[in-house]
Amino acid sequence: MGIIDFREIVSAKADHASVKNAPVGTSALPDDFETFCRDFFESLRGMTIFEQISTGPDNGIDLGVEETRADGSRIRWLVSCKHKAHSRAPVNEDEEKNILERVYKWECDGFIPFYTTSPSAKVKSNIEGVAKSGKRVDWYLKDRIERELLGSAAGVRMAARYFPKSMVNHYSTFIATLQTWSASDVVVDDDGVASIAGFRRVVGHANDDAAAAIQHLARLANLSDTMDAHEPYFVKALNDAIELAPDFFDYRKSPVTLADFAHVSPTWCSYSLYRASIDRNNGRALAFAYFVGAVWSFWDHARANRVFAEMRAFRGRLSLDDDLTPDQVESMRASEEFKQAVRHHMAQGYLSVGQVGMLLQEQMRDIVTRLFAYTNPIPCTA
Fold this sequence. Notes:
The protein contains 15 helices and 10 strands.
């Protein structure tokens, strides 16, 4: 069972109940599925539209798109959009006629069936005939459409626009491990060493323990692939954090790649963090200090908690009008009374996920959420 319910987009038939009964604010136009199809190929697949969707007779084409390949070559596709998820009926021959003739008429190199149900046996045979004639065929049935939507950040955003109810199901499992590898991909050599995607383990002879070890290796490989897939999103979130709080990080350039983060570090300045926590004029205040502390924790959680505790100790001992010199700051930090206050604040667990989540909103919450969801190890200089 898939995540996306394509019935969230009303039927292409104007007299269908899904059109007549659609609540205000939802997809309620019979051509909404074709609009989704156009957005899918234009925004998600990066293709150029040479024939737009239109009302009335379509002259043998629902949508025309042109794909530019990595080698610079171009492929023109005739796209047929058929949305029958509401009836669950297959696309039949009366609805999909003269496919090859239409491909030639529009001077296309190939045909894309973009269907939310399967084609009938006759339509499937006709489409296979297009391929046999030398034209390309690229199938887009509901499983592939869903897979490509949920396989990238841009696709997820598009799915959220067209299928908001279904995406509640998606976000119930926000992070899903990629299933690139299976136990059958693990190679076991003559010495009983199993390996896959750079992971190795001695498993010995075939037995239950060996089978479990092989399954574990495949899982490690999938977790590694998932982390690799998440890396660009993690790096983007780190760069967004630096852009929002540039004076709390030491860095050489922006934007920063993951490898560059070996040369990026927090400033770890508790007094500067305290000053930011009382700076309401620049939209910072205490929530901003929580944001900085949470981001710092991706470098060193223990140190981030200690520096944050020092910030809280400053807040408890200074008035809004106090502005200490560096020497005064160090003198206060060295006092036993201040150290005792720091120990008290460290025990409070201020930077817990729940506490940070309750305090942060909008941009800061978005950045920290992405950092948590797409976490990758930050390289160190050692």
